[in-house]
Amino acid sequence: MIKWVVLVVFLACAAYVHFRGRVRLRLTRQITDHSTFMAPLNVLLYACSGVPNGRYVGVERFPELAPLRERWQEIREEALALRAAQQIKSSDRHNDVGFNSFFRRGWKRFYLKWYDDAHPSARELCPRTTELLRAIPTVKAAMFAELPPGGELRRHRDPYAGSLRYHLGLVTPGDDRCYIEVDGERYSWRDGEAVMFDETYIHRAENTTEHDRIILFCDIERPMRWRWATALNRFVARNFVAAASSPNTDADRTGGLNRAFGYFYKLRQPAKRLREWNKHVYYIVKFGVIGALAWLLFRP
């Protein structure tokens, strides 16, 4: 009886996540999307959220972030120095499970911190920015993110609702053809201007201009209405999200998830080749395996 109650609750939460907002993933993709497996926890976090559950959240609700906007030009100087040294780059070792698919379409990054203290490489190369971030405990992760001309991030949603996404424009085209679209609503970056949004809504980004775009990209802890919810959020972040830490250099720590991802990626290669050969066969096998696992879990 208990397992059926669990199944009904899980399916109800997964349905809520799928139908939340105006833009949705294809059902075949949503079934295996990370956000589906995180749905029960995310629905609980939405219910406990201390800020409105909307596509965009007013930056003014987070006054502790004001120093970042006030000193954005200093931050930009360090970002430009990194770009000149070709340190804002994609991963070439399959050790960035959270953003691995983005690299194929031009997106690049340099991690400043990831649910921990600053990366050693960031402290060395970006001392002013890491000092600013260290003084703001609600910033759980941060990086410089570059989207070059022609770069694109296809529709996706992040799996965990325990944070909100903050973007601060550093080097932008200042053009509406360079934008992020959250649940169908567009925002175009501008130098020195910030935006906050809920990354668990489906979003995408595109730069069809002839100019580069670099932003300060941060995960900000989602405020909660109750202390127990804050404690739960921090426990999950500390013990699970932190395991997705990805290095800039060999001096930086690689989280457990990313160490495992290197091996998992090799196992995915036969599946990718199968999909390239015949998508119909790929999906039959994929959902057949999912169905078999569900039957094993819930058989009488």
UniProtKB/TrEMBL annotation:
InterPro entries: Asp/Arg/Pro-Hydrxlase (IPR007803), Asp/Asn_beta-hydroxylase (IPR051821), IPNS-like_sf (IPR027443), Lipid_A_LpxO-like (IPR047694)
Pfam family name, one: Asp_Arg_Hydrox
Recorded GO MF terms: dioxygenase activity
Record domain Aspartyl/asparaginy/proline hydroxylase: where: 70-223
Alphabetized UniProt keyword annotations: Dioxygenase, Membrane, Oxidoreductase, Transmembrane, Transmembrane helix
Cited Gene3D superfamilies: B-lactam Antibiotic, Isopenicillin N Synthase, Chain
Transmembrane stretches, start-end: 280-298
Source domain of life: Bacteria
Leading EC class: oxidoreductase
Documented EC number(s): 1.14.11.-
Keyword Membrane: yes
Residues forming coiled coils: none
PANTHER family found in the cross-reference section: ASPARTATE BETA-HYDROXYLASE DOMAIN CONTAINING 2, ASPARTATE BETA-HYDROXYLASE DOMAIN-CONTAINING PROTEIN 2
Family: Belongs to the aspartyl/asparaginyl beta-hydroxylase family.
Name under which the protein is recorded: Beta-hydroxylase
Annotated source species: Dokdonella fugitiva
Organismal lineage: Bacteria, Pseudomonadati, Pseudomonadota, Gammaproteobacteria, Lysobacterales
